[in-house]
Amino acid sequence: MKIGRDFTNLLNTSFLSETERKDLETGKLSVPDMDARVQIKAKSDIINQVKVAKETGLDHVELDAGVPNPYLELPEDYLKNAAADARRNAITLSLHLPYTFVAAATASFQESDRKLAVELLKRYVDVAEILGCNNVNMHPGAIPFYQAVGEYKKIVRESVLNSLLELAPYAASKGLAFHLENNTAFDSILFEIDECLSIIDEVRARGNSVKFCFDIGHWFTRADVGMSIPNPPENIMNEIPEGYLGQIHLNDYIPVVKKFHPPLHYESGLLKKQNLVRLIKMLKEKGADLIIVETAVREVPELLNAGQLMADESKFLREVLKSSGLRINP
């Protein structure tokens, strides 16, 4: 089983000037404004992401095409050079497809909108092919909360199904595995495991290959919409049969304060060390082959010391993996 990371915002401060770093420390520059300034630069520097992955003992980088991103504008030579660098460093790549703005319309019941979203995502699949990625991953779209009911939900399911029936074979034609990831409960649609697996079953029944990228932190958000979480929380894995999982997203969630992706070694969410050990064992039993860590932070001291945070989290994960019978690179 490989271990990788989606760096989310953890590399952003390394792209600040000295003046901007001081402004961030003093509060003159806010975290959202910092993100807006440097996100494109951080995501563009694929070679740097590979370098940090190598330094922290990882096998894989998930490139984040959440909007804003640079990937459709990067020259092909640049992408090929990044792909070659990843191969030299024995780091595999994948691409997380965008999931907001136009991309969210893969669930639209307006067919013209849905078609535009699918064509947009195909362009990202083309980029993933050039980068030598081994897989792509998508969220199942989003709709306004007031239409996530009754007949509308049935139409949405059909829209998502049709989008997958176009995108999965397209990815396969480019040599890429295709994953569907569960939404958060705040997205109102396709956040339940059985809903996702049902669509995957139907896509597979028509001769296509689709894997399930289970995001446990996304699933935990149901705690803030009046739904239950099992005790212990990793028991949710019992609802996923063998044969569905490919890569999975490993992150935590803190209910009530609604905090996404806190560092795992803080043990501040629902996943304590013993839960993680058991979760990793269950993932192995279910056939998952790639764990992508998705930690993100919003506190300025953590952002300015993200390198140390990642080192501490990696050390913690090595202990978890050793206890679960797996290992991470030294």
Q: Can you describe this structure?
A:
With 330 residues, the protein is an alpha/beta fold. It has one domain: TIM Barrel (Alpha-Beta Barrel). 44% of the residues lie in helices and 12% in strands. The chain is built from 11 helices and 10 strands. The strands form 2 sheets. An 8-stranded parallel sheet has the order 6-5-4-3-2-1-10-7. It has a two-stranded antiparallel sheet with strand order 8-9. Strand 2, helix 4 and strand 3 form a beta-alpha-beta unit. Helix 6 (150-173) packs across helix 7 (193-205) and helix 9 packs across helix 11. The longest helix is centred in the middle third of the chain and has 24 residues, at 150-173. The radius of gyration is 19 Å and the shape is globular. The mean pLDDT is 97.
Strand order of the largest sheet: 6-5-4-3-2-1-10-7
Task: Give the CATH H-level superfamily.
Answer: Divalent-metal-dependent TIM barrel enzymes
**Distance N terminus to C terminus?**
15 Å
Structural class: alpha/beta
Question: What's the number of extended β-strand segments?
Answer: 10
Which term fits the overall shape?
globular
* Annotation field: number of helices: 11
Poorly predicted runs of 5 or more residues: none
CATH architecture: Alpha-Beta Barrel
CATH level 3 topology? TIM Barrel
Helix percentage range: 40-55%
Q: What number is the mean pLDDT?
A: 97
As for the number of domains, it is: 1
Please outline the major beta sheet: 8 strands, parallel
